[in-house]
């Protein structure tokens, strides 16, 4: 009896273990959640691409590759099993991971796709296919640096859920900007490094209230920066550098107080002064106003920007009379004042010791006089992080015996370079 009892107990334990195993088994079967229609869509998608580096080797029709949710670059929803993200963003400068070929419309079978990232691949100068505009659940579309050219299809304007749109670094045009005017959910828009043929920045961008990052660098925009951009009070990054833009009335941008990155370099501000209101953008960490034909005195208000990390005022037509009002910029790590007129600032060397985090300081062509302090200040000073000090083309006497300068990478060459005049 005892034996039988024991046997039954053992048996029930065994059954329990077995049923556990079966449960586990059925769980892993449920994990194989790739939806066949989507798998077929990916196989067609791969078929139209040239994958010389075997980036997509995990994608295949073989039995052991059934689980497309495990294929490289693909992410499925845990709940529904639908593919929600296709991330084939590549880094071309590494020399690998470069897909060529064309985009298959089979992408439209991925009806739940919310992220499509194809940046850094090579679509051979073709146009962005119109059908992408029908992928209506897309929230993130990254086609930067992908060798697309020609007209941006109006159909992209149908993607009203888009949060991220990155078309940077291609060879794109937009004839009719208005067809993008409904992309009002955007929080990141990067159109940098294309050629928009001298057109104005479209005013409707000012109605994209969620916009946090707006990058229109080096894209052949011209004319007046629209006042409407001043409505973008959540804006964190505004990069308008390397265009042909003007700002007549900077006051209408005075509410951009969330900005942490502002680049207006290489435009033409017609010799006007740096707007004082920039000094009220308390979150600014990077301010680049290089080579934009600003003139006059650098406003003391910039000294209120105590979080500033990078300040580039180089190659304008500026003067600094009162260094003291800039002395609170103690977080600065990169500072370029090249060509700012500092002719009467014999204590300039003393002033820069107030910026303990400086890594790079450029004072090229500033008409700098010989400093009252000795360059030996570098031996003792708090400027322990400074590694690049550019002083070419000033009124400095060559200073060969500067001991502390030895810790600076580029200063010696600068100090011994020919004087101007
Ligand atoms: C799915 O679940 C796994 C494990 O819990 C988790 O790491 C992953 O982030 C989830 N994926 C999504 C898209 O929610
Ligand atoms: C594309 O843009 C993203 C930012 O949206 C960036 O992180 C990435 O490096 C860019 N890729 C290429 C290839 O430029
Ligand atoms: C873009 O594609 C064209 C046509 O295939 C090719 O000639 C060109 O080199 C490509 N550009 C880049 C930057 O890869
Ligand atoms: C998408 O946009 C195009 C051009 O702007 C338009 O002709 C078409 O009707 C739109 N399609 C949908 C589904 O809204
Ligand atoms: C915007 O795009 C350009 C060109 O691809 C890139 O160099 C830049 O880093 C991007 N800016 C941001 C803030 O992502
Ligand atoms: C900007 O676009 C205009 C008009 O198409 C063209 O004439 C000019 O060469 C372009 N400028 C640059 C820098 O590409
Ligand atoms: C946006 O800015 C413009 C010009 O500054 C202004 O006329 C307009 O009323 C603003 N729009 C909203 C919705 O605040
Ligand atoms: C900003 O700086 C100016 C000039 O240095 C000063 O008069 C002004 O009070 C400062 N503003 C604030 C809000 O601190
Ligand atoms: C430098 O000082 C001289 C003499 O005080 C003055 O005439 C000149 O305007 C000053 N230059 C600058 C750029 O401040
Ligand atoms: C460096 O510091 C030492 C000791 O504090 C001092 O004697 C010397 O004069 C200082 N040298 C310079 C160039 O400031």
Q: What order do the helices and strands come in, and which of them pair?
A:
Elements: H1 2-31, H2 36-47, E1 49-50, E2 74-76, E3 83-87, E4 100-101, E5 115-117, E6 140-142, E7 149-151, E8 164-166, E9 171-173, E10 188-190, E11 213-215, E12 222-224, E13 237-239, E14 244-246, E15 261-263, E16 286-288, E17 295-297, E18 310-312, E19 317-319, E20 334-336, H3 348-352, E21 360-362, H4 377-380, E22 388-390, H5 411-415
Parallel strand pairs: 3-5, 5-6, 6-8, 7-9, 8-10, 10-11, 11-13, 12-14, 13-15, 15-16, 16-18, 17-19, 18-20, 20-21, 21-22
Antiparallel strand pairs: 1-4, 2-3
The structure holds 2-acetamido-2-deoxy-beta-D-glucopyranose (10 copies).
One 2-acetamido-2-deoxy-beta-D-glucopyranose is lined by residues 75, 77-78.
Family: Belongs to the RLP family.
Signal peptide: 1-29
Subcellular location: Cell membrane
